Structures are given as C-alpha cells and as structure tokens.
Amino acid sequence: MDCERELSHCTNYQAHSGPKNFMSGNEYEHMMEFDQLLEAWMYGHGLSGVRVWCLWPILRREVTWAIAGPILEQLQSLVIPVSDIVRYRSVIGRLSNLEQVRFSLDVPFHYGEEYNNDLTPEFVATTQRRKANALAAMVAFVKEHTQLFPNRLLFVTCTNGVVYNFEEQECPEETLFEIAHLLPPLLRPLYLDESNWLRFTVAPHRIDLGAVESVVSPTKPQSWWYRAICENREFLRRCRNLRSLDMVTLGPGTFWWAVQERQDLDRLDRNVVPDTTTAAVAAITDNNNLTQHQENQRQEVRGLVPIRSVTISEHITPFADEINDIAIGFSLTLEYLSIEASIENGPPSLLERVIHVGTGWVNLPVLTNLSLNFTKASLALDRQIWAHCPSLVLLVIADPTTRYRCQDIVPCLPGHHSNLKTLWLQGSSALAFDPTTLNSTLKLTSLRIYTGSCTDSHFFIPHVQELERSYGTQGLYGQGEEDDEEGGEGDPSIQTGLGGASDVIPRPKWTWNWNLPVLSYAMFTAEFAYRFQFRMLQRCPRLEFLHLDMTSMDGPDAHTRVLSRADLFDSISSSASSASSASHSGNIQNDERIVARWISILELKGQWTIDDSLLPEFLAGMFPRLQYFNEKTFGGISLLGLLNVMREFAPDEGCGIEAKGEGEVAPLSVLQRVTANMSFDFADVEQLDKLGVYPLWYHREQERLNTRVYLEPKIEFCGDISDSRKIRRNRLGCVVLREPIH
C-alpha cells in the first residue's frame, strides 16, 4: 500500500488532488502542530523541508491506528505513539488481550544544545507542560489497563526516538520506575532483558530466578536500575540455569561467589572435578566436540552455574577482579568470553590504568572465543595464560599500548592452539606474544600482529640497535651462522649493550618460517612490519591479503628497509645459508624463488626501498596474481620504476585474460589499481608528459588520449595534490599510457 492510498484512508485526503496539495493545506498544518516546532529550525531548513520531516511521524501515527483500530480486541502487542495516546486511552476497554506496550516518544521535549538560545521562557514552559502531560498519560494508561485487566499487561518499554530533526527524546527514569511498580511481578522468568528488566529491578528479591537462562542488561543503563542492581549484585548467583550473560560490570566482587563455589567443589569432592590435566585437554576433539567421558564429567558438576557465554563491559565502574573471577568460576563450561574496557570518564590515573588478566586461571577446556578490547587501559597478561586455553578458535586482544621499552616486555609462554582460526593481537599482547605458538596453528586463516591503532598514520618503533639487542640479532635481516640452520634470531637471553655491558632482554624469537596452509589475511605494523621476512610467504600458499606498515614516528630515515635479491629468494641448501648477504645476492642458483601465488592485495607503507631493476622481480615474480598495490610513501620505490613495471606486464585496456593451466599465471595479469600517497603537482603538464600519466579529468589531453592505447590499470594519487577543487577527498584517478607521449 503506497503513501497516497494510505493517506486517503487515514485523513480527509479525498478532497485533494495529491499528497503535495494535501501537505500544503490547513489540515496538514494542524496535524503538524507548528507550536511544537522552533522557528529557528524552520528557518534553517525551510518550510518545505519541515513539511516533509513532519510527514513521517504523522504517517506512522495514522497508519498504526488504521491497522490496529479494527482488531484492538485481538492485539497482544502494540506500539502507541505518545502524540496519539489520548485516542488509545479512549478505547482501553477493548484491549483485553494486550500483554506488551511500547510507547514511541514522537513529540519533541528536548531540542538540542544548539537551539538553547532560541528557547524563550514561554516556549520552555509550554514544552515542560506538554512533556509532563504526555508522561502522565503514559502512566495513566498503564494504571487504567492494570485495573481493568489485572495481571494481563506484562511488558512496557519506551522508544527513545528521533523527532523530526531534533535530539533523541528519552523517557525519564522516574517515569519508567513508576510504570514498573504498576506491573505484576515476574513469575519464574526464562530470561531477563530490556523487555522485563523494569519488573525485575523493582523487586529483585521476590522473584524466582532459578529458570533464567539468559541475562541481557539494557543498552543505556539508567541510574536507578543500575544502582538497584549494584546493591543486589549476587542476583546472578540465584540464576542457577544461566547460560548466557551480557551486561555492564557491577563492580568488584560481582563474580566472587562463582570462584567460591568452584573452590568449594574442589575441596568437598575431588573425584567430581573434571580431569583438567594435559592429557584430558588433549582429548578434546576437533570443532570443540567433547568426548563422552568429558560430557559425563560436565553433567556431574551440574551444581555449578553452567554459563557458556559472557559479554561484559564497563559502565561507570572500572574493572577490578571480574575478568579473572569469570574465567575461574565458570572454567568448566565457558565457551565465549568478551570483555570491553572502555570507560570514558574519570581521572587520568583511571584511564591510564593497567588491568591484569590471567592471574589464577585454571584450564578452560571448552573456551573457543576470547575477545579482550581495552581502549582506555593497558593490559598485562599472565605468562601462562595460553596454556589454559587449548581449544581457542578466535583470539582477539587489543589495548592502546604504543610506546614501550624492549627491556620492560615480559613475554608470555607459547601455547598449543590447533583449532585457532583468527588471531588478532594489538598493543601489549602483540609485544608479549611468543611466535612459537604459530607452529601449532595449522587452521589459522586471519593474522594481525600490531601496535598502535589501525587508523594511525605513524607508529612507534624502537631504535634499530635496541631491536637488535632485544631479539639477539647480529644483523637486523641476517642471522648469525650458529642460528641459520633453524632460522632463529640468536640467543636473546644475554646480549652486549652499546656500552659493552650485558643486557638481559628475553624477547621470543621470530623465525618467519611457520606452516600456515590456510592463512588468507596477514597484517603487521610497527616493528613487526619492519622486521618482516618474505620467506614467511613460502609456507602460506593461500594468502590473499598482505599489509605491512612500518611508517615511523621518528621519520623515514630512522627505519628503512632495503629490499635486495636475498629477500626474494629462500635458501634451500646449507652452503647457501652459510654465505654472507653479499655473496648470497649474487649466487641464487641453489635458492628457491619466493612466490605468493594467491596474494591479490599488497600494501607496503613506510620507507621500503628497492632498486628499479629488482621491482619487476619483486612485484611480477613474487606476486603473480596481484590486483591492488598500495605504496604509501614512495620514498624508496620510484614512481617511474613502478610505471615501467605496469607497462611491461599489464595488458592493454580491453585485453582478455587467457585461461592458464594450474600453476601458470601471467605476471600482473589482473592488476587493477596502484595507489600512491605522495605530493604531486598536476599543473606541471610537462612532467606528466614525461611520466606518461594523465588524470582522468584532464580534458585538454583527452583528444590525444583517445588516439593512443593506454593501460587498463588505474593509478590513484592520494595526499597533497594541487588544484584540489577538482579532486574529491584528495584522491585522483589517472591512466597510464603504454608509452609517454613525448
């Protein structure tokens, strides 16, 4: 049913020739209730814009009544616009089956701070009076219905809707509290969520929670219910059948009862406790299925609350012991744990705090998903944390750690994670990660190891000499003879410092030779990108996306990677491995070319330097299916060298890609776009002619462009470009000629 037909049913629209005529008439202006709208708002948006904005709440109101009016006796659930509540109160006797009501706040009470200067005392008084009447009508509706039909109406909520183009309209907590007291108490609920949270909060001690399986707190905690629950935080202990929990933290001690119950069970009957030895953990089958013996053990501990999923975040109370208590108290059944530490307000000491995770953990044999997101705090992981989580499928840990000293890093012990598919570590967790863990992750598909934020344009990287000492390297990109055979980086336990003194900086080795057969996505930033070795690609046959960003806060001269032939070939003989870098670059007959056959997107950011003569071997030889190449700085890779690669290997526009036999891929046969982030003056046409690159909007050269063959791949320049009036978002698409015009 279209809008025109609906309006004809709901109003005296028949007398008008169309919606536009109706919306310009007196009846529509009366329905709009101009007295509720600010003159400043109408002046800023124009009267026609106001009329269009007002159509939607009016249409929703009239359509709701047109549909609900004939069947009021049958309705069990109803959305009542507050602007039309008088009409529904007049027929409340027909709503005998109504169980759930949602009040839609579709009238303006709050106008936003930008309109404060336009609110006259008379207008404020009128608005407050209208608000008080509307809220009182909501309470009166609930009261009248509960008197007419006792214990029938069970759920009452309010929609914090946007009215016209104003701020969100919110129902005061006092009104919500008043409504909640009018509703009957919950009778052995199966869940607690936004629909029945009001009824639970007003009488938390009188409700039987033994059957509750799911608890989800409201998305916007009002102070009254949050305060009431904090004072009765052990209500969770009464939810003996709880499976899923999603709420804000209620403060220290919220889950201490679960730890006590677990400890009491251990003390009372050791025979009941499931076997959490290494042998038992290893018996967990693929896909996290339990053996029959382990399932029987879970049934034997049914006295514990069997929580499987926990999502908990900070509100106004910072985390204290909750994270570790959850992991310990529900260790036998916990499968999913998500922590969000993002408290926004508070003194600097609170926002710069360190949260310890893993302290006192026992084995969590069925935990598959662990996500720790710390945006306003640093993270300190217990060294043995990964040994307790053998069944992980997804592991995401992030905190804002950027600057650090290598000697302050305390690495975690490696773990065995044969089921792990996603591993994203940001900040302190990345620095403490032991890459030996990757020896067991044959199912890994997505890998991110980085510091800083994904949106950062520059990253902190320790001084080169500090990195060398911290990892025990004698040369940043070559190994000492004693370590080459196993691909290590030297003994990191004792190294000689700048002044000849011995420094103890025990950071784990990075061998870059892991077997990751199904890895499709890899991203490294900061020091991890700076130290990346391309030999990793040899054992990642399914890798499609590779992102390496070593853009340094200290400038390009501080951290530069010079790519040589040694980076393009992997040693496969002992004689070659014992050779020096210089001899290695000139003697590659015993080495194997590194080829990443499936990579389609390559991003190199930072000061990557490569000679123009090696660029074809790097791009075309190492990445035969490359579609997108993004080089951010172009400080070390010359633009002319890149253009020559495109001219040599990319097909002309319109050329089809011939089907090849398996394993035979034409170099750069599907390259579509190259992105450069650099300063370039496109007013210098002579320089453009020399490069053979022309912007798509450069009309003066279009006639000549149309008469010459140009390449299908496009090059985009991003950054400081002159004549930016013609460039949207500072990006410019260009075409590359097969040969420069001049």
TrEMBL record:
<feature type="compositionally biased region" description="Acidic residues">
    <location>
        <begin position="480"/>
        <end position="489"/>
    </location>
</feature>
<protein>
    <submittedName>
        <fullName>Uncharacterized protein</fullName>
    </submittedName>
</protein>
<feature type="region of interest" description="Disordered">
    <location>
        <begin position="475"/>
        <end position="502"/>
    </location>
</feature>
